[in-house]
## 1
Amino acid sequence: MKEKEIADRRNFLKDSMAGAAGLVVASTTSIAGSAESVKKQKSSLATDSNVTNKVDVLVVGGGAAGTIAAIQAGRAGAKTLLLERNSQLGGTTTTGGVSFPGLFDAWGKQIIAGIGWELVRESVELDGGNLPDFSKVPQRHWMNQVRVNQFLYTILSEEKCEDVGVQIAYYEFPQAITCTATGWQVDRVGFGTKRRVLCKQIIDCTGGAEVVGMLNLPRLREEEIQPGSMLFKLDKANNPGRPNGPGSGLLDSLYIHGADSSNSRTVTAANLTGRRAVLKKVREAKQRLMHLQPESAFRESYRIVGETMIMVDDYTSGRRFDDAICNAFYPVDLHTKSGVKPKPLKPGTVPTIPLGALIPKGSRNLIVAGRCVSSDRLANSGLRVQASCMAMGQAASVAAVLAAVHGTTPLEVPLSEIHKLLREHRAIVPA
């Protein structure tokens, strides 16, 4: 987005919010910059352990949904802070290594676009790869998966955040969340850092709806969850994703049964189990280990109980919800101890995601995006993939920003305004 467009949008928001309960919108000074600017800030960054931020939108979680949500909020002119517990953006696409975020097309046409597609497309183009022809219906769904260079995807994500003034805080996670008269107070901790954030809206993109859980709002979880995967490469160096096509740049993977992303203890257990399995594989195969992802890729944990629940019949029938804000597309894809047998959708079927499925039931000034979307287990097995999470992230962000503008909550924002702003940012809105 051009600088003038961003400035115009921020000015619009400033004017709109003059009477909206004192909402603060201002340009964000990015930490990243020239060597001179880094040098000037270095001493304060190193010595000030207590930090306070006043922002319009706080995005918690920088995975497939959260990265897109933060960029969208910044482009819409909202002062935005993005919190990520790890060291990079991208989540499953990068840290987990599932660097083929799909699916963006269905039945011969593109059904998900916007900021997520922009980031994927630029990653492929910068890497010298090729994009699939979405006008052709593939024989198998995976044939139109877009392979991306996970390393490029990460740094392009950071660049896009910086371009629109989104501040990124790595290695931090909320300790306490308190409702205030104007939104939220979020106290967070990282090593050597205590940060207090005052914000109007929170977008929970943690995958397992961790913010929702901290607020004691209801979540769903199965007794047996889908296995995670540890991705690696033996013998040959990993080709990050070029050229783009079936079988290229793919890592090997091992199931980690019981892999659970709910807390630091279960994530540690999954990582240790996955690495032990890879080490056993190396010894048995007598091949060199050329690549190993830093963390397991997780498929399932908690889901919210939303104002609307997407059931598997809604998903497989392609139900067009009255408050639909984005599309989704993927087979019903439930992984079990015996493997996975995807159940393709019937020709012409394109599921939709309603705004109500992103709103924790009974909440205000809070919205989620990603695999924690309100849904039953079978519907969630198709909804959880990255392209759909990206679409949810952009839609949730638009709803949160407009709620901040109007001094209301996301569920009360007129749907026509959400659709309008999404289209302005090149998202595809369900017809």
## 2
Amino acid sequence: MISLISRLHRRGQDRSEQYFTAGQFALIRARFLRNTTGVIAGTLLSALVLIGFFAPFFSPNAPGIEGANPDYRRGAPQAVRFCDANGCSLRPFTYTYVRETPKLDLSSLAGGDLSALDALTASGGLNASAQSRYVEQTDQRRYLQFWVSGWEYSLFSIDWLGIDIRSDIHLFGVEQGQIHLFGTDEDGKDVFSRTLHAIWVTISIAVVALIVKLITSLLVGGISGYFGGRVDAVLMAITEAVRVIPPIPIYLACAVALSQIELTPVQRYFAIAVMIGALDFTTLGRRLRTHILTERNQDYVLAARLSGASTGRIIWRHLVPSFSSYIIVDTLINFPYVILAETSLSFLGLGLTEPVNSLGVLLQKAQDPDIQQNMVWQFAPVGVFVLLIMAFVFVGDALRDAADPYSERRR
């Protein structure tokens, strides 16, 4: 018993020593893992990022017009079942869907009887939605298959190295035809596949924008804080000029300017990412400048100067790393705001456009009155967008609390 108590005591001492000798990032990680909400949101966010990155593998159909299903335009989501009136099955299945053709009595119309046309008009048979009604053939099951061969996609590609690894393996599919879990649009394109591809496009734009923002903030804040004087006054005047102007009008003006230039979808993609990142440096730049103004007179900076270190080395190897935890947390917290900026521009028709798949493009389509009345399943990307934003917000809040060394004392 005494030996057991002594072992527990030593183990507690070891944990105490590990806590007081742990590095800054180890402490942040430990505090983050104790936040249940942050861990759940981080797991969900990791799953969404993983699905978005490997979207071609998880998508049963090609997201573009090449993967459109001409026999299932404006089709509703196809439910996956295990049981029906014919019995249950261990294998999931869906049904075969056949277009319902409105009946028109042409012989009556030829004889001058317009009652058949009146009946057809009253039934809504001439509407686009009525012409795209599909009937489930409950006696024709289509079983889901996993690890199936389908349309070919690029698994890993580096153009400038000539590397292009391609595959045609997908997570799931059906025996015959196509499966549409989120339905299809007016062209027959699969909404589920488009949504998965849109996740990665939107996240990658946020990554590029935040890299540009980080570089701009480090340059402005580092140079302004280290040199001070007139350099600081000029850079802070430019920063304040950008800061006081509301961001949305600036984004709109830049987007209108881009619309006057002939750009490919890829070029427009990078132009919007750089534009968003370059105009969002003010807050982080000012905080970094304040930190460096405080730290530049410390003993370790003086020692680096006396040892012959250059100005650039002092800033990037000594001053900036001392602020690295805040930089990382601030960058992650700003992810949802950058995603909102891209989505807002695309929603207004000034950002990315068809055929690029992004959440903003899909949301922009959802404002069509025809979709709102007859194809409500195209609002599925809205739910994915909200889920992605909320996951980023909760992860950012958890990281902010984990990076605060006084957060535990306030509880």
## 3
Amino acid sequence: MKKLLALSLSVIMVLSMVGIAAADDGVVLKVVAWDVNTTTYYAAQKEAFEASHPGITIEYVDVASQDYGTKTSTMLAGDDTSDIFMIKEVTDILNWNKAGYAEPLNAYIERDGYDLSGFVGMESGYAFDGVQAGLPFRSDFWVLFYNKTLFDDAGVAYPTNDMTWEDYKDLAIKMTDASKGVYGCHYHTWLSAVVNWAVCDGVNTLVDGEYDDLAYFYNLYFDLAEAGACMPYPETQAAGLHYSGAFGNGNIAMLPMGYWYVSSLISNIQNGTYEVKDWGITAVPHKEGVPAGASFGNLTGAMINAKSANKDAAWTYVAWLCGPEGAKATASTGNRPAWVSEDVASVMSSVEGFPTDEASKAALLPSMVSIEIPGVDHASEIKTILNEEHSAIITGEIPVDEGILNMNDRVAEVLGK
């Protein structure tokens, strides 16, 4: 048995050396992605990787964003041999894994002792029945934006990285000044902006068929609207007010929103479009019993094609891209990597226009990030149902309890198919 084990290890070592040798001889990895020419991090990732991995060249295959899921699925079904496919939607990788298009990464991770801790749980978004079908390299988790000028003018302490939702509610009401047209907070109309905070506990999900946990956040929203601390949905809708413009106007004290807003906020302040000038971010508030710094978000990742002829080199790239070094390249363009570390936070906070306070930098280190819509069967149907009922609730068409009962009943029918 020992001889057999030794032989197996020798074979593995030889195969690994073959992969390395192939890379040294010059491997071109075809990476299928979308909006390559207009997405800044692709060029930064390619340049940084090739500089540190001579012998491996990244060649992008650009697919139109609006057709990406359909086009790439067709390519894979037709035995396309491109080495790596970028993952735009969790449902895409779910279907690709089911069809056998995804090279399982478990053996590579185990072989190399690849550290997954920096993903703070996000890698689970690409894991199905024990198979790690891909890894994330970008995640725009949600944070709390706030207008420092309004807090300074009111003589009120800034939000912190450890606030409960009750603390947030009290602070929003305190910061509201109707005489000056100042709202303590603002909610965009999406389901995610109002109630997705329920998934931050790492237990509840939006696809489990049980939605009673959303009631707390709906009631929180309506309490704030009734207190005049946020603009009610009918007014937001009538004004056609987008969250970016709302906060940019300078009369919103706090805004829960995805990290992606940082880049447009910085650029609009620099070009003089926005009234808000001095701002910061904190971790989103949390419920009692949920760790401070817990958030939710969506993923962008990479999958190795099972038909690739360069799997070892492809793994070298995916491991680098999604890990701490690739994360620095992504962060250098102002985008939020999936990997969480002090080094990455330092790169992100060094971007011109980013707040200089330590609390804002600390907000870049979430304790846990849950997936907004996990990749499960019927996820798209479930999402449609939740959005329909959310619309009815938020407009006041039906009471909160009725809407949640409808969610429970309708999703149960879908799950029972």
## 4
Amino acid sequence: MFEDIPVEVGLVFEGERIRKEDMQIELGGPKVDQKFEIVLVRNPDAIEDGKISIIGPDLKDIPQGSHVRFGLLVEVAGSNLEEDLEGVLERRIHEYMNYIQGVMHLNQRYDIWIRVGKKSYAKGLDSFTDIGKAIERLYRSELALIEKIQITFLTGGDYFESLYAMARERYELRDARARGISDEEVDTFYGCALCQSFAPSHICVITPERYANCGAISWFDGRAAARMDPEGPIFPIARDTCIDPEKGEYAGINEHARKRSMGEVNRVYLYSAFGYPHTSCGCFEAIAFYIPEVEGFGIVHRRFPGPTVNGLPFSTLADSTAGGRQVEGFHGISLEYMRSRKFLCADGGWNAIVWMPKEIKESLTGFIPEDIAGKIATEADASDVLALEEFLKRKNHPVTEQWPDSTQVSTEQSESSSASQFTGAGGQGPVFVAGELPITTGGVKIILKNAKIFAEKVIIRPLEKDGKGGTK
């Protein structure tokens, strides 16, 4: 099946990671503004079956270490294919690319991040044609509904701009379709296991009002996928008894979580970042992170370039969020979930959001309630927690009602960036939250799982040499 491709292709490579030092080329990713992948269902007459096209420089024409804008268009046709299946077929790109030895694919839609490794490149994987062959054959072998397929890779050219704009419009049309139905109206939710190779205990649950964390699969997409491929990675979950409607805890989801995570995850709250938050893999579009100093949540998306208001960049926050762990106060989410009426509803919803990048805020115009929109800070309003606290006071944000009248970050805190990251406003919040915290002492290693630590003060001092070869 893959004898004419210079590297191996198979499930064994799905969880492969390619580090920066092992990278030949990076396609898309955080350093590139425009990137996309899209699947479109076409009329059979509009497709030349098996055709693989490259618009712009091919892999062998791109200098080593480059970060390249990248587009992937997959056009399919079949007598039983419908537009409703586009999002489902599109998400398979993530799976199929990761089957290729030396190719790492992360995220989806307009956030794709692909790396080609040096070793595979040296073996001869120096053309998109070979990647296209692998994708084409995997689609055909796994999805008999596809009767014709045509693939186009784009790294430049005028067509890139117009196709990128079209893709963004298409994503929005798909998302809008799913906004008119509530979780209470259905008796079946859907689960997705596409990312369990990266995060074995991750339990992705898709409901009408809670999109997949990756932002690529709606409830309608999940339903279509389960019907199209009953043995595939997207499957139905019986909603069953609603245990807690505010937090979004369902007996069917809990049972599903126990089975899929082999007992690692036993309870899931769909609408809260505390207690038993929905797990995350690594493909989430954004992160909701608790800021204990002000008792509210910040939001940051993958494309935000600098440190957030608490001094931590997206990459650091992602390390505390990903891996299928349930870490209180850290919640991987899709941007579409932020348009849902269930958005963190157990934690206060939009009244609990205190900071987000301007780009996200502008994209959610009309979805953020008018009475709170002007009270949520962006990077233009606050670049650190002290400035954020002053902004929230000035705007009379709802979270300030929880603060003691004398709430004020102490002078000692303001002199320590470390303390400002950990101590809660008024001493009310947890100063540290961790999914797994190792402590080494007395020759033994103690691991605290799902730890929440409260303290009046955190003091961090560098170790000093004691003059005897040790430290003090």
